Amino acid sequence: MNQFLTRRTFILIPTMSILKIIFNPLQVLASSLASKEEWNFSKDEWKARLSSESYYILREEGTERAFSSQLNNEKRKGIFHCAGCDLPLFSSDKKFDSGTGWPSFWDSIQGSVETKVDFKLIVPRTEYHCSRCGGHQGHVFNDGPLPTGKRYCNNGLALRFVPD
Ligand SMILES: [Zn+2]
């Protein structure tokens, strides 16, 4: 482990959290940019394409109520697609019951999601979003099952399930 890096990160993260509180206490984070030009829609265009609930999750990084999504209990085989652009994000064989009330996966389809750190709850969390349209999906934690140890905690409203 690089000691300098570790120490720097240790100082940097709390400092950034404090700055965030001082300058932007109630800011709603804009969602991530689309990687593909054709998915770079304006706010109004996204509002026209999505339900208001999905818009709030995908484009304003909102979070649905726990246990509110039917996809939390979805047990069939199939693929979970991005509700914004239909890119396949998760396979049912990587889904597990985390008990949190949100659809949870221990791995994503390779290359389908990208991550960034957010400070919405002051403590840094790793946000992830669709790699194509930039739509917010959820947060990824390091307390998931093997083999990855990851827990992708996803909003059901940001997904569309396609059974096999
Ligand atoms: Zn997408």
Bound molecules: zinc ion
**Helical stretch count?**
3
Mean pLDDT: 88
Low-confidence stretches: 24-28
Helices, strands, pairings?
Blueprint: H1 3-23, H2 43-49, H3 52-60, E1 78-82, E2 88-91, E3 95-96, E4 104-105, E5 113-118, E6 125-130, E7 136-141, E8 151-154, E9 159-163
Antiparallel strand pairs: 1-2, 1-9, 3-4, 4-8, 5-6, 6-7, 7-8
Describe this structure in words.
- The protein is an alpha+beta fold and 164 residues long.
- It has helices spanning 3-23, 43-49, 52-60; strands at residues 78-82, 88-91, 95-96, 104-105, 113-118, 125-130, 136-141, 151-154, 159-163.
- The chain has three helices and nine strands.
- Strand 6 and strand 7 form a beta hairpin.
- The longest helix is centred in the first third of the chain and has 21 residues, at 3-23.
- Residues 24-28 have low confidence and may be disordered.
- The chain binds zinc ion (ZN).
Fill in the keyword field for this structure.
164 residues, alpha+beta, six-stranded antiparallel beta sheet, three-stranded antiparallel beta sheet, 9 strands, 24% strand, globular
